[in-house]
Amino acid sequence: MRYAQLHTTTNFTFLTGASHPAEFVQRADELGYDALAITDECSLAGVVKAFVAAEELGVKLIIGSRFRLSNGMDLIAIAPSRIAYAELSGFITLARRRADKGTYEAHFEDLRFRLRHCLIIWVAKLSDTIVDAVATELTNAFKDRLWIGINHRLQGGEQQDFARWQLLGREKNIPLVACGEALMHSAERKPLQDIVTAIRHKTSIQEMGTKLELNGEAYLKSLHQLARLYPPELLAETAVIADLCHFSMSELRYQYPRELVPGNVTPIAHLRCLVDAGKQQRWPQGVPAEVESLLEKELALIEELEYEYYFLTVHDIVRFARAQGILCQGRGSAANSVVCYCLFITEIAPGLIGVLFERFISRERDEPPDIDVDFEHQRREEVIQYIYQKYGRERAAIAAVVITYRGKSAVRDVGKALGMDESLLDHLSKNMAWWERGADVPTTLTAIGVKMDSELLTHFFNLLQLIQGFPRHLSQHTGGFVISETRISDLVPLENASMAERTIIQWDKEDLESMRLLKVDVLALGMLSALRRALELINSYDSRIRSLQDIPREDKDTYDMLCRGDSVGVFQIESRAQMAMLPRLQPQCFYDLVIEIAIVRPGPIQGDMVHPYLRRRAGLEPISFPSDAIKDVLLPTLGVPIFQEQVMKLSMVAAGFTGGEADQLRRAITNWGKNSKLLLFEDKFKNGLLANGYTQEFANNLFEQVKGFGGYGFPESHSASFAILCYVSSWIKRHHPAAFYCALLNSQPMGFYSPSQLIQDARRHGVQVLPVDINHSDYENTLVLGETGVRGIRLGFLFVNKLNTRDAQQIPIARGNSPFTSLKDLVRRTSLSDAALESLASADVLRTLAGDRFQARWQASALMPHSPLLDESDPAGDELLMPGPSLEQNVLDDYASVGLTLRTHPMAILRQEFPFNKCKRFADLVSLRHKGFVRIAGIVTGRQRPGTASGVLFMSLEDETGTSNVVIWNSTQQRFRSEILTGKLLIVKGTVEILTEGVNVPIVHVIAGHIQNVTDRLHNLASSSRDFH
Amino acid sequence: MNESNSRLWLAIRFFDLPLTALSFTGQSFTELSLTSRPLTTSNLDGDTDKPQVVIQKKRVIFANSLAQQAGVQPGMDITTAQLLSGCEVLPRDETKEQSVLHALSEQCYQFSPYIERYSSEALAQSGLLLEISTCLKLFGGIHALCEKIITQLAQTPYGFNYGLAHSAPAAWYLSFADYAINGTESKALFIERLNALPIALLGDYPKAVEALRKTGFNTLGDIATQINAKSISSFKKRLGAEFTDLLCDIYAIDQNFQQAALFETPRNNYRPVEWFAAEIQFEYPVTLVAQLEPAIESLLQQLSTYLRKRQQQCQSIEWRIADIYHHQELIQVHSDEPQSHWQLLYDLSLIQFNNKALPFEVDTLKLVCEQAMPLQQRSQVLDFEQRRRKSTLQDFTVTIAKLKARLGDGAVYKLGYRDSRVPEITNAILALAEKCNQQLPDVHLKSLRPTWLLTTPELIEQRHERLYWHGYLTPLVGPERVIGDWWQKPVARDYFLAQRQDHLPVWIFFDLYNKQWYVHGVFA
Question: Are residues B177 and B98 in the same domain?
């Protein structure tokens, strides 16, 4: 018996289907179907995933979509050919674009002219009143492309209904076809199907009643079951339809935009021309021979694989950004390409790292390259608008991100659908997100006193497992653009994003990769904004520094600074873990930074585990290589594989892999744990090593090492791109600290640290920071020349809380060159609202006009709008009698109104009192005895609980001398959970650990034993903590 | 108090009312014996050893001492509170709080005719304000009166603090300070005490408090100093008239300099709850219900007159019979529809009395009606054709009322539709007053459903490999597969329309779990 499943709703019809597309394909294969049609509702979002699975299993995949028309009819449109596919994709785009995000609007009238090649199945519904006229109209419109689909689901009244449809089919000459809807690949998914339906209806299953499916019959049935449900002719008709379908997703050919190539030149010639021009600029003294040969190799492969247009497109975007003065830099695997370097897409010169072009493009992989370009985060929108303008909205669209169910959202939605108490779910999801992550959840629940019906709890946890990874909705990718020569909607449907005037395609990054469509990543990077600002500031007083290229390379002072772990604000190496690693690693050159960035990964650094690289670097472990070939690969990292590229090279030089195979091995390693593809390479890898004369033992060890590497392997090219920005930012910090901190503060929010922490660090580096002042500040922070000739920072109005940007920007304009003389003068010359004046007064910005913040506020709150007639009519004798604010009050109000203080640190004030006078300061810790008792106090500025650190919680406590690192083991967390959760000011008793060996600056941390919450001593200090990033 | 014509306010602030009010069950104001009622928090669920919090809008507004010890503070979100203390979370019931305040006002009415309720939204605190200046002589002075009030309220389960002052808001704010009352207080002393209070107590005016705080004001005294040195108008233009009026109220500042008495805020006369109570004492001991009938009729007619005069009606009355030895028995009579005429209540009362023999020789018969409601102004529907239906409805109401009186409330119910995939669950037994779902979903328009659905499906025998239920059954149409309720009692059945050999159409199913056949209904 032949059968094709023609009505399949996957979980990409969000919150309706209860199985993944691949699960349907696999099941269809097991059941021996002729073909499987994926017919999600007005969507092709799941077809690529189904296609990938179908290709693997050799299942014939049919592409279609179901529509619920505005007149209530249900239709399935199936694409038998490429042209029909384009029609279908265009029709979905039409229906989606005319409705709000996540919905669609399809009309019967649209069908006739829009779907001229698709096959149409009119799904017979039980409650349909069959209108003769509709049947006639459908027949006229679609003629022999029309079927009536019978969806036999064992519902009441179906038998009688079937007779009516049969009669209609005979009368109108419309064939009937078996068209049972499948919402699940297996009947066991019924509970999950009910749950997602309840989530869609925003209610619980108990309240759903008949809105739930009557039964669990909407699954893929065996041929035997089908034979019992449908007459043979209806089943045979499915095969007729399947035979009419010749379209395969592999036919989708991507056409690159061609306008970037001048008329009479071939694309490769144009690319060569650009590369030639670029290499002259890169190597004005002459291009080294090895670079020339690399370029030839790359260009030949680009020409062979026809990727010229892709490089030209990215080059065009980067060229635009540079012309506009927008800093940008390519990163990731593209840094392995010399062509990208010559096109100024990346900044990694071939000599800096071991360039491995196979990591970027490989013939075997047959996948398009991926170039990620970072732009300044505050100016990326200009680049996006340029792309839209150049290629039009029909040809350029942003890729989707499939938002899927993970931890918190799953707990919340599944719990609600099961009718569980909302506050309990809130409690659970917050707990599970970080606190009890990975713990035995039922035991944890019992421990925190949650009593639940155990059966419901069992359902809850089973469903939580099942729903993990289920798509919930489509969202906008951070910057992945797809640009094509013709309409994108011929390839993939577009729909509205939540952001106005944005459209997204229905496929995500993985789908694009699978379909070999090119995506250009236009990403935003805060550090690029900060660097551009810093360069502008430096250039204002030092004309030698205009761009990143003007920054001296390999500056010793810069590396010395980093060796001390002095890296607050520096790109990529400012985290607590990175700062602890710097004194151990002692970076002395650019390549050390590349290693530093790659080595501090969650895997190797947590706990007491010290990376073997560090041991070898410190001379604690011998370095040996079994062969010269391996030595060539691993020498830069002292025999320890650190980068993904090294594993690729190893497999190539020692195990005889081709470049493409090596890249497949790299991918298998990256995905190690998700699937077991890595083991497929085991034999080949080991045999290759044996064939090259290595011992069995060595082969086993190396493979184990490669396997273990999966957790932390990082691409060298990626790390190198970041290392450039890391070095540049470090250099600016070292040599132009005022410009560095000023630029960072103007580019917030970004990085690890709050403005308050950055300013404290700036002052520790001798940068004078002046408060916001009505007569001296601009909107942004500015550089000022101090009396001693040292540059400092004047804080800008942007830090004043509740002061809107428009108000803040008009003050310096209104002020011009004549300072305000009084509050009335300020009101007369600006149009500041009462609220704005109050914000300025509260922030102590008006002190030169009105005295302390109490007086300023009192006066500001009674100011009337300016009127020439009433200019002198303010009643006298209305001054405030209250004494001025105390230092403590000022500090607290500074935090509340500006988020930072330039006065004394709150801890310095509290230090006068008990018990703070018994606590050690951060600066004192280093002079204590290793493993000795210590008591410290500080404001909590960060809590971090890395997933791989076996439950250890790291906390940062700030005092007037710096920030102490506190390590809290699991048992201590359990005892002091409330203190850890709610404390803003803590006293920690514990033991101090000081590492001095092999480092030039001791590494100090405190192991907490007892934690006391003394937040009430701070009153309402508005300090912000960076938690659980 | 030295100034004889000035006012004196006693504020009683019930600090734990959000929690304690939750166990308030009392309805009766006639027998307000609060101490006898199970009102303590311990009776919320019989367990006081655990932290409890009361929440409103997902925020803690009250935490009991155990919760507070664990670090829970008002204003915290529920999740943090639960993480800290594992506390029981109870939603606030403001209606109950008002009921308690009502009952407490009734208690205090004996001490003063001027009683006001006061609630602070920001602090989730409520209480009573008693103006006592006119009652001092009657109760023997400030000290004696206040002690009586405090002693009386101390017998209730509600925790409270009190404050005495020259104005209502001043008394309320002083209730947050702990001053004993000795009877020699003066206005100057009240102001001195007020001056020490923090401005945070004015939390119902958050913007003004924030503005004051940011200008350096910490206590009410700071405000007083500024007002005394400068003028109240400087506050008015900055913080608005409403807040300035409050300051004037607190400090009894007179903003109207001429004929101040004309602008004096009048005191509210407390109006206690009215209820009907009348009794008849018999000249001889009554032993039979029949002998009570004339008295019942007479008392009900009095009630009827009482209600009509006030344009009121009632739904519940209470009969109290007593003998000369003070034995008492209560008989409650309830009607579904509010009544102002005595006839139906008489019929219902007789049913209740006839249901049981008199427990003793009755000396007194008392009728109490505590809760009367205003007569609804009902618009008359122009329903010429359906007059008979209306009278039928009236008869139906009377019949239902009589049935309920005779059989009890639980015995009279109606059937409604409950939306479910499982047939036996679709029949819901509802109380008569409940709304019933009349909307059948579309699925039932097509699917077969029997006229008579058996509450419990009956097992079908298999005889000679055929189905047998009072005759052989032949399945005709089906199956309709029903699968559902997997989260509580899973159901998986194939339903068929079958015909019994006597041509009776029945609804049968095959249970897919236990592989048995059942009859579930019979078609008409």
Answer: yes
Would you say residue B507 lies in a domain? Answer: yes
pLDDT for position A947: 54
Query: Residue B98 belongs to a domain with what CATH number?
Result: 3.30.70
Residue B9 sits in which domain range?
A: 3-50+87-195
Check CB contact of B503 with chain A, cutoff 8 Å. Answer: no
What pLDDT score does A68 carry? 92
Structure tokens at A374: 């970072």
Let me know if residue B252 belongs to a domain. no
Please check whether residue B414 touches A, CB under 8 A: no
CATH number at residue B289: 3.30.1490.100
- Is it the case that residue A979 has pLDDT exceeding 70? yes
Residues A353-381: pLDDT tens digits? 666 676 677 676 666 777 889 999 888 88
Reported as a single tens digit per residue, the pLDDT across B418-458 is: 888 888 888 888 877 677 777 777 767 777 788 888 888 99
Rounded to an integer, the average pLDDT of A768-789 is 90
Residues A739-761 have a mean pLDDT of 90
The rounded radius of gyration (Å) of the Cα atoms in chain A is: 33
The side-by-side arrangement of strands in the sheet containing B452-459 is B452-459, B516-522, B505-511, B491-500, B472-484, B466-468, B461-463
Decide the pairing of beta strands A494-496 and A503-508.
antiparallel
Name the percent of chain A lying above pLDDT 70.
90
What is the DSSP code (8-state) at residue A119?
Answer: E
Write out chain B residues lying below 8 Å of A208, CB-based: 419
B153 shares a domain with B29 = yes
pLDDT bucket at B497, cuts 50 / 70 / 90: very high
Q: How long a stretch of residues is chain B?
A: 524
Does residue B348 sit in the same domain as residue B451?
no
The pLDDT value given to residue A46 = 94
Pair (B344, B485) in one structural domain: no
pLDDT for A867 equals 56
Nearest neighbour of B234 by CB, restricted to A459, A878, A1013: A878
User: Does one domain contain both B142 and B288?
Assistant: no
Residues of chain B with Cβ-Cβ distance to A882 below 8 Å are 215-217, 222, 226
CB contact (8 A) between residue A214 and residue B421: yes
Q: Which of A127, A161, A881 sits opposite B225 (nearest CB)?
A: A881
Q: What pLDDT does residue B263 have? A: 63
Q: Which residues in A lie closer than 8 A to residue B214 (C-beta atoms)?
A: 842, 853-854, 857, 893
Are B150 and B298 part of one and the same domain?
no
**8 Å CB contact between B419 and A209:** yes
Looking at the domain assignment, is residue B411 inside a domain? no
Quote the minimal CA–CA distance from A975 to chain B in Å: 11
Residue B351 lies in a domain: yes
Task: Please tell me whether residues B187 and B41 are part of one structural domain.
Answer: yes
Q: Using the beta-carbon criterion (under 8 Å), do B238 and A862 form an inter-chain contact? A: yes
Give the chain A residue whose CA is nearest to the CA of B216: A854
Asked if residue A294 lies in contact with residue A357, where contact means CB atoms within 8 angstroms, the answer is yes
Residues A26-69: tens digit of each pLDDT: 999 999 999 999 999 999 999 999 999 999 999 999 999 999 99
Predicted TM-score (pTM) of the model is 0.74
What is the chain B residue with the closest CA to A879? Answer: B230
Reported as type and span, the H/E element at residue A207 is: helix A205-208
Which residues in chain B touch residue A157, judged by CB atoms under 8 angstroms apart? 446-448
Domain boundary, last residue among B359, B377, B395? B377
**Which of A190, A210, A217, A864 is best to mutate for the B interface (most B CBs within 10 A)?**
A210
- Measured between CB atoms, which of A126, A156, A838 is closest to B448? A156
Give CA–CA dist A996/A980, Å, rounded: 29
* Total domain count, chain B: 3
Strand locations in A95-139 (E): 119-123
Same domain, yes or no, for B38 and B124? yes
Question: Which residues touch A509 (CB under 8 Å, ≥6 apart)?
Answer: A399, A401, A477, A480, A519
**B83 vs A127: CB contact, 8 Å cut-off?**
no
Average pLDDT over residues A678-697: 83
Q: Phi and psi of B22, rounded to 5°?
A: -65, -25
Q: Which chain A residue has its CA at the smallest distance from B496's CA?
A: A156
Look at residue A356 in the predicted model and tell me its pLDDT: 66
